[in-house]
Design goal:
Blueprint (H helix, E strand, L loop, with lengths): L14 E2 L6 E2 L9 E6 L10 E4 L2 E6 L6 E3 L8 E7 L2 E7 L5 E4 L12 E9 L8 E5 L6 E5 L4 E5 L12 E9 L7 E5 L2 E6 L9 E4 L10 E10 L5 H14 L4
Length: 254
């Protein structure tokens, strides 16, 4: 009789980036909820969907749905940094005009009332100017992820709901977890630590996602994005910790 022994490793293993040979956090280990994934960890930008034209990034294609976040106007394109922090790449938004926009249409993972999580490894350069720093805007007039200038907070803009403690400038890992419609059920994390909670309702996608600005546009991100991931599910503390632990090594983030 032949016995077959199956060993299940309970510890999620990082992928290896075939371009750099470095360990790369695999967001798909969080299940099938990964909806969008814009990443630029390698200096070989074409392999990560980044195209430059003129003086900036004209196109950044997500690695899940191949959605193209683009800008056809050269003066409004963010810059590409091949060596941002710890030798890794990022897209740099100037805080005054840079943005990338992608037409999404309907998305069941981010439908009105649904829960979602957004993870970002990036850098906030400054909380200055008259407008807030909008990281990601679902273009429905209500839902955005932002660093708020006037109140020096990081959180959501959703029907005037803004939340939590002051963000820190420099390189960090931020995670927005939206438990839609639940009183004080939504949490924002910086470097794995919860900064506070808010009551937030997901109003659904307005057909467009803006990266680095809101839809008008009149508010911009003054900072850098190494990678940004959108999940159609709630992250628990374990998932937040896994994502953060990878970034501490890969990006040298806190």
């Amino acid at each position: 009789m032949t016995l077959v022994r199956t060993i299940v490793d309970p510890i999620p293993r990082a992928l290896v980036d075939p371009l750099s040979g470095a360990a790369e956090y695999d967001p798909s280990q969080e299940g099938s909820s990964l909806a969008r994934w814009w990443a630029g960890p390698s200096d070989q930008k074409a392999a990560y969907g980044i195209t430059e034209a003129g003086t900036g990034v004209s196109s950044w294609v997500d690695r899940v749905g191949a959605l193209d976040a683009a800008n056809g106007t050269d003066a409004q394109r963010p810059s590409y940094l091949s060596a941002w922090t710890n030798g890794k790449a990022a897209v740099d938004f100037n805080g005054t005009s840079d943005r990338l926009t992608v037409t999404v249409g309907a998305d069941a993972l981010l439908a009105a009332g649904s829960d979602f999580t957004v993870c970002m490894w990036g850098e906030l350069d400054a909380l200055t100017g008259a407008t807030d720093n909008w990281v990601l805007d679902f273009s429905n007039g209500y839902m955005a992820l932002m660093f708020e200038t006037d109140a020096a907070k990081v959180g959501w803009f959703d029907s005037a709901y803004r939340s939590t403690a002051a963000p820190s400038t420099g390189v960090h890992f931020w995670c927005w977890v939206c438990d839609s419609g639940v009183a004080s059920g939504s949490t924002v994390y910086q470097d794995g630590t919860a900064l506070g909670t808010a009551t937030v309702t997901n109003n659904g996608l307005g057909g467009v996602i803006n990266i680095g600005s809101e839809g008008t546009p009149s508010a911009w991100l003054n900072g850098k994005i190494g990678r940004i991931e959108v999940f159609g599910k709630l992250f628990d503390a374990g998932a937040v910790a896994r994502a953060r632990a990878w970034g501490q090594s890969y990006y040298g983030a806190p």
